[in-house]
């Protein structure tokens, strides 16, 4: 009987150890999005947009629809600050439909939207914005913290840059951030950097495109994001990411080459 119990204990210990090993080797969730029959790919990139149609959001949406039709886009990328001023309050927040579904109505924009979070989104209910319930309301919506989209000729690496920024934790002013799922912060960042490094290193795509909310290098108002310069930039340098989309200044296109660091397009 004692021997039998000992064997059961050893087996249980082995199973628990295996579970710990599996959980510690998490990787970024991946999605496949087919390119066009000729291998080409067209998409739009937008950020800082969710204002219930005001602040020229509706006017920009009209132009996006025209450009989207002309290019016959495959999908849309959002680089964060999806809902102003303070994200969503819950899964049933009318701001979701008033700022998204009812604004981007053009036929050409009825494609998949791949989105990451911005700092304004973290001021609301983050879990609501990440919830699959929103996809039931509008099937175009897909928002996760960090993930990969394989579009054949290109792979897109969506990175949650918000937890890197010290100011949001140590000097948040009057803002309250929803850090559920992020704390402990140091572990979250370490795991994310590891997963991004692994995904980029293993990618065989012709183009590796990194998407996030905060600029690494920028001549805009906010300037460089020093935490990303220190922690994320070395990984991108080693893995030869070609193009990066960020947005905290409203300047969303950044170009990477081996001899040129990341600077704002303006």
From TrEMBL:
<feature type="domain" description="Calcineurin-like phosphoesterase">
    <location>
        <begin position="42"/>
        <end position="229"/>
    </location>
</feature>
<dbReference type="InterPro" id="IPR024927">
    <property type="entry name" value="Acid_PPase"/>
</dbReference>
<dbReference type="Pfam" id="PF00149">
    <property type="entry name" value="Metallophos"/>
</dbReference>
<dbReference type="InterPro" id="IPR004843">
    <property type="entry name" value="Calcineurin-like_PHP"/>
</dbReference>
<feature type="binding site">
    <location>
        <position position="81"/>
    </location>
    <ligand>
        <name>Fe cation 1</name>
    </ligand>
</feature>
<keyword id="KW-0378">Hydrolase</keyword>
<protein>
    <recommendedName>
        <fullName>acid phosphatase</fullName>
        <ecNumber>3.1.3.2</ecNumber>
    </recommendedName>
</protein>
<feature type="binding site">
    <location>
        <position position="84"/>
    </location>
    <ligand>
        <name>Fe cation 1</name>
    </ligand>
</feature>
<dbReference type="InterPro" id="IPR051558">
    <property type="entry name" value="Metallophosphoesterase_PAP"/>
</dbReference>
<comment type="similarity">
    <text>Belongs to the metallophosphoesterase superfamily. Purple acid phosphatase family.</text>
</comment>
<keyword id="KW-0408">Iron</keyword>
<dbReference type="GO" id="GO:0003993">
    <property type="term" value="F:acid phosphatase activity"/>
</dbReference>
<keyword id="KW-0479">Metal-binding</keyword>
<feature type="binding site">
    <location>
        <position position="213"/>
    </location>
    <ligand>
        <name>Fe cation 2</name>
    </ligand>
</feature>
<feature type="binding site">
    <location>
        <position position="48"/>
    </location>
    <ligand>
        <name>Fe cation 1</name>
    </ligand>
</feature>
<feature type="binding site">
    <location>
        <position position="119"/>
    </location>
    <ligand>
        <name>Fe cation 2</name>
    </ligand>
</feature>
<feature type="binding site">
    <location>
        <position position="81"/>
    </location>
    <ligand>
        <name>Fe cation 2</name>
    </ligand>
</feature>
<feature type="signal peptide">
    <location>
        <begin position="1"/>
        <end position="26"/>
    </location>
</feature>
<dbReference type="GO" id="GO:0008199">
    <property type="term" value="F:ferric iron binding"/>
</dbReference>
<dbReference type="GO" id="GO:0008198">
    <property type="term" value="F:ferrous iron binding"/>
</dbReference>
<dbReference type="InterPro" id="IPR029052">
    <property type="entry name" value="Metallo-depent_PP-like"/>
</dbReference>
<keyword id="KW-0732">Signal</keyword>
